[in-house]
Design a protein that fits this description.
By secondary structure, the protein is α/β, with parallel strands linked by helices. It contains 7 helices and 10 strands. The two termini are 27 Å apart.
Amino acid sequence: MIRMLGVSKVYSKGCIALSDVSVEIQKGDFVFVVGPSGAGKSTFIKMLFREVIPSSGQLFVNGHDVGEMAMAEVPYLRRRLGIVFQDYRLLPNKTVYDNIAFAMEVIEASRRESQKRVNHVLDLVGLRNKAYTYPTQLSGGEQQRVAIARAIVNKPQMVIADEPTGNLDPDTSWEIMKIFETINKGGTTIVMATHDKPVVDAMKKRVIAIEKGCIVRDQAKGAYGYES
């Protein structure tokens, strides 16, 4: 699914975000990417959907060489990915249903297939009764559920999440994480950058810890810190 080989990213003025990172993530993995602010987590995550391009090294996502990919190929890479952000990024003038269905329009799915898939993911995230409300009428947790539903409606091979519980209270965070776990149990790979220590410690998934642009720990059934 993901293979990084000696990947580095240097921004303008010589700011090193990642340095010689090599890692593999397999189909069906659930991986937390953790580390202090400025460690390189966001760069790591953004590279996976080619918002950021490596300065050196090779990065393969779903068999695509991200660094060598032409801009015209990027939409096809992203169609096989589900992306969830901390700030939801919903379309305010569209209903919950239409926000999710928009992802099906992009791939030119039939109306029948779109309706079937949208209703399915609405049930999965527990929001069928909110289908025709607007994002501004929802709580933060509900908006994040919509964002997750939109991310998975196309049956992506992988879901990439950048601090998806960062704006949520602890109880809501747990509800969101249960949804991610359900998605993962269905075979979808999950890669998630997070600062949510209680969640990481409790879930005991694979943990990749980044500090100063380097992977300092890659631990199965890991915790946020260095304790076992």
